[in-house]
Amino acid sequence: MRYIIIGAGAVGGAIGGRLHEAGHEVVLVARGAHYAELRDGGLRLRTPDASLTLPIPAADRPEAVELRQDDVLVLAVKTQDTVAALEAWAGRPVAGGGTAGERLPLLCAQNGVVNERLALRRFRYVYGVCVWLPAQFLAPGVITAPCAPLTGMLHIGRFPDGTDEVARRVAADLETAYFLAPVAGDVMRWKYAKLLSNLANAVEAITGSASEPGSAELAARARAEGVAVLRAAGIAFASEEEQAALRGERMRMRPVPGGDPAHGSSWQSLRRGAGSIEADYLNGEIVQLGRLHGVETPVNELLQRTANRFAREGRAPGSLAAAELR
Q1: Which of these, 208, 197, 244, lies nearest to 323 by C-alpha position?
Q2: At what angle do helices 213-233 and 298-313 cross, to 10 degrees?
Q3: C-alpha span between 144 and 11 (Å, rounded)
Q4: What is the pLDDT of residues 194-229, one digit of tens each?
């Protein structure tokens, strides 16, 4: 199997880098300065135990990749970029006949819970991947993955539910590459649990922390709204105890030589000046479900609105104290 990583940022770069290091065939797809660095100097993957330079083939557009029957597409872009990526890749021809949307498995290695449904409009074989993978992408060509001994935990299963041989083969490959990769017939239950934890992403992006007292209290309120909404909607989610028991001591944050302090994906988007942020598909998911099921979500509405304003205005992460949020 060859892995085409569509969006080789923090998550995609860490997955692709680890798979390549373990001997699997990988192509990284990126844009702009990041693509140029990958093409010319390889992927620099920093972990607590090593600083690696990996000569992984890179492409900057779908037309630069000749798709094969044994390819697996790993979608790792932010949700706000999902539709454009799906449209660009679904119609691409595959050697031997058919298109990517008709023939190839697509793995949604993304935060949020709407990507799989969007993908199923264009791809026949869609898989959810619940991403527990702290990683950072702050400079072109460089990915920092601070967890050890395992780099991350990636549940994988068919969407909307079930498992198959493809999921098991992908999981087996990931297990060779410093990942815990449970095959889960209820993968969306794990992704909704991850959604609850991701509600704190906007808090960290806006205030600079999700753990300092004022910020932690705000994050807890956002999560409580999320739990209430999911219960009102009848949506199952894995408990924090389940998640912690599975991770155990196999994923511990450790210092990375030359690395920056760990921050979440939304913080990183503001730091890079990306111009957009995931809040509509994290906090906004809870807001939408709350409106559908009659649950008020004022904290998540505030976080969604403020995070989007920060992204539009190019505000630096951490430039507003929790007490100043209105």
Answers
A1: 208
A2: 120
A3: 10
A4: 999 999 999 999 999 999 999 999 999 999 999 999
